[in-house]
Amino acid sequence: MENIRLVRWTPARMRARLTDVIAVYKAAFLDFHEPDPARAAIERTMHARRHADRRDLRAVAALLPDERLVGFTYALPGLKGQWWHDVVSDALGPEDAVTWLGDCLEIVEFHVLPEFQGRGVGRSLLRELLREAPEQTAALSALELPDSRARRLYASEGFVPLLSNFQFPGSWIEYAVLGKRLTPTDPAREQPPSPSAEQRPAHDSGGDHRQARAI
């Protein structure tokens, strides 16, 4: 994490850096897991632009001193009527859906450039995203690769499988849906901000589809 600082981005700031966000996403995930990365990047840009129009977006960026973006994550409170929320709710069933998604921060994207993985950047991003989150739970979907670096990170941070080998409508790719209870004793809530972090409220200014992929 040396020379890398974490910055809480407002929705407006994420929109301004959207090209960089998608570039990191493409290099970290799409180039490895999509048959047509360029087309997928265009599609994800449209989704991310819509998400950045929401005032309740929470976003954290990992930046070098020259402002180069090397990692990012963002999340939105889950709401009925949103594609990911409704699909996962139906798959979980009424009781588990209320337990896990009734008051949930849904992590939409979470990526770190390959050359910066394994340095603690991803863990720091995830903890900063969840720090002081008012929701009771957090949830995301990740590729069904239990031994991957991303899945090991999620497990070490308290995420547990809610659904395994799950296929979203229209996709043949298998995902795991993971959930984490956010409690007052959660280190993600108690961890103090890094001295080098630029701490700004996530919702300073006003201005679906959601799957957080492997970092």
From TrEMBL:
Q: Write down the SUPFAM superfamilies for this protein, in alphabetical order.
A: Acyl-CoA N-acyltransferases (Nat)
Q: Which residues form the N-acetyltransferase domain?
A: 4-183
> Which superkingdom heads the taxonomic lineage of this protein's source?
Bacteria
Q: Basic and acidic residues compositional bias: what residue ranges?
A: 200-215
The record's region (Disordered) falls at: 183-215
Q: Name one Pfam family in it.
A: Acetyltransf_1
Q: What is this protein called?
A: Acetyltransferase
Lineage, opening ranks? Bacteria, Bacillati, Actinomycetota, Actinomycetes, Frankiales
